[in-house]
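Here we describe the complex-level prediction in full. Unlike the single-chain runs in Section 2.1, the two entities below were treated as one system.
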Amino acid sequence: MGYTRSDLTSFLERIAAEPGVRNVYVRQTEPNGLFAFIEVDGGLSREAYVSRRRLYDLIEDEIADNDVTSQVDFDYTIVPVGDDISPPHVPADMIPLRPGEPIGV
Amino acid sequence: MTVVVESPPSGNTPELHWTKGIGCERLGERIAQDVERPEWAIVLYFYAALHYTKARLIAEHGVWSSRHAQHRDSSTVYMGHNDLVREYLGRQVFKPYKQLYDLGREVRYRFTYDAGKVTETVQEAYEDLGAIRAAVRQQGWQ
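The structure predicted for the assembly as a whole is:
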């Protein structure tokens, strides 16, 4: 059994627990994928940009190390959130990722 | 499911995309000096990165996509430019490229903010573009 949507969900739960990550929303995509909308605190400062860069590192390393995208349909976006910018518009069809709760049921 | 990688249409040469990339970068540098809306430089930096990576993908791999993201119909998956960058140019190019892609889209469609901190982000984006340009440049290009 290769990398599954369940594995991806577990990984995104770990991302949700990373410092500076405010919320992770997900949408199921067919046949077995996920799209993740990741809100990161800190706005437009240099520190926030560098913090987001670390998240790209974590996610792309997970994808490469596990050959994720050949096994599940996965895409994501990382969105800055902060007092210096307007609130993000979370797509209406996305649901908050809640650790321990299965999605899509 | 069949995965399709498109070939570049006629006229889409590496040199053309490289020149377009330089034009976007130069315009971005000018916009970055704007005191009211410097964030639009990030959009130009993203499009510069798009053209630089297209140049390398065409020159070295002969691949191309008309869309940013993957798209599919009932039986076929068409790789988007993002997929091609990740697949053919590797993580060290894709990571800064994806950050510019995400942030550029935010600037185009969402940002309304107090411009106090944005110059720091514009500078970080410029440095990411420089890393991409250095990684994909080939001899003989400008």
